[in-house]
Design brief:
The complex is a heterodimer of chains A (about 200) and B (about 180). Chain A has about 200 residues and is mostly helical. Chain A is built from 6 helices and 5 strands, in the order ββαβαααββαα. In chain A, about 30% of the residues are buried. With about 180 residues, chain B is mainly α. Chain B contains 5 helices and 1 strand. The N and C termini of chain B lie far apart (about 85 Å). The chains are: A mainly alpha (about 200), B mainly alpha (about 180).
């Protein structure tokens, strides 16, 4: 394969050089990735839930396989599921994570919780006491260990939230999704009727 | 058991992307089971709508977790590979430093969330609508089969339709013609 060619002015053109071999991420992207490394399941649920609300009902509305009424029911259900699933997921996850943070919080001599930049400061000793053997086996350097210890309340909180969600999914999500579905349906019917009556008046 | 739990939590705390990947799959499984239960028990959802929504929900759950795993795990692996072989590099950060590992971890988290968004919000709805429709058609077909009346020579003269199911006897045929006042 020809990758170099001699030009008229005796300069060598290197075609391979025109093709970037790698992407170099700058400071902005690096700042985002550093933040992302400490994202919790709350961030993840929010990102997935918001995009689900935007995308899924549209895909259901364009489903060619079913009739108009089913399309409508299906799209309304997707929207209701996204709203309720995200809301309860966020509430349960953040509550459980908050409880875990309180459990591993660093306290001053008077027993008050120490905060750093508005966030509860995690006591590494408390975390080591609970999960020390696990961290020992990983043989992490100081920086990585410090990062991992800070993430422990988020991990413990998320695992607890999954347990809680076994119940909230049945007791809250399912009935609230059906209720929201009916509300959206009622709202859409009202709007349709209002449009129709406005059209009749204009006509 | 306590040691096992310690190792699990420590491993997840060290590899946030892996934890987010697995916890999302577990969350979807629970949510899907709950949603199916909700539709089955709902008295307000029309029976015909249930015929579509129940298979849609089951298909949704299976497709969601399956596609999520099939799409997201390779995407996370690819991201890691691109960073390791230098196709994606970080300005002024040396390979093998703690800062590099931190950025690589962040990139894997982004890949896991992006994979979840694409698989669960685009691929799954497309697949589940297709699977749900097939399941609905099957359910409707079965329903028709169940409600189809048994061969009755007095009221159903379509012998050919039921040929093979019930033997046609001359006595039945004559009864049918007499009953309907037919002259042959």
């Amino acid at each position: 394969m020809i990758t170099r060619i001699q030009s008229n002015n005796n300069k060598t053109l290197n075609f391979r050089a025109l093709k970037p071999n790698s992407i170099h991420l700058g400071k902005g992207a690096q700042a985002l990735l550093t933040k992302a490394n400490n994202f919790s399941s709350v961030h993840q649920r929010l990102a997935i839930g918001a995009s689900a609300l935007l995308m899924q009902p549209i895909i259901d509305m364009y489903n060619k396989e079913v009739d108009k009424d089913t399309k409508k029911v299906s799209a309304i259900r997707s929207a209701a599921k996204a709203i309720i699933g995200t809301a309860t997921g966020l509430v349960v996850r953040s509550s459980c994570m908050k409880l875990a943070e309180l459990k591993y919080a660093q306290k001053d001599a008077c027993g008050n919780i120490i905060k750093e930049a508005g966030q509860i400061k995690i006591d590494p000793d408390k975390v080591q006491k609970s999960f020390g053997k696990g961290f020992e086996a990983l043989k992490l350097d100081d920086k990585a260990l410090s990062d991992a210890i800070k993430r422990v309340p988020s991990i413990v909180g998320t695992i607890a939230a999954l347990g809680v969600m076994i119940f909230t999914n049945f007791l809250l999500d399912a009935p609230l999704t059906n209720m929201t579905m009916e509300k959206i349906d009622e709202f859409m019917d009202k709007r349709l009727k209002a449009k129709e009556s406005a059209g009749e008046q204009n006509g | 058991m306590a040691n096992f739990a310690q190792k699990i939590v420590a491993n997840f705390a060290n590899d946030n992307a892996k934890f987010l990947f697995l916890s999302a799959a577990a969350g979807w499984f629970l949510a899907s089971a709950a949603q199916t239960f909700g539709i089955v028990t709902s008295k307000k959802i029309d029976k015909d709508d249930k015929k579509f929504l129940i298979p849609q929900e089951i298909a949704d759950g299976a497709a969601n977790i399956g596609l999520y795993a099939l799409f997201t795990a390779p995407l996370m692996g690819l991201t890691e590979k691109l960073i390791d072989n230098g196709k994606i590099a970080f300005k002024n950060i040396e390979k093998g430093t703690p800062e590099f590992d931190r950025l690589k971890g962040g990139a894997r988290v982004i890949a896991s969330i992006a994979g979840a968004i694409i698989s669960s919000n685009i691929l799954t709805p497309l697949v589940r609508n297709k699977l749900g429709t097939i399941a609905q058609r099957k359910a409707l077909h079965q329903k028709i089969k169940v409600t189809e009346p048994n061969y009755d020579p007095y009221y159903q003269p379509l012998f050919q339709k039921n040929y093979g199911k019930a033997p046609l006897k001359m006595s039945s045929y004559m009864s049918f013609t007499r009953n309907h006042g037919l002259k042959i």
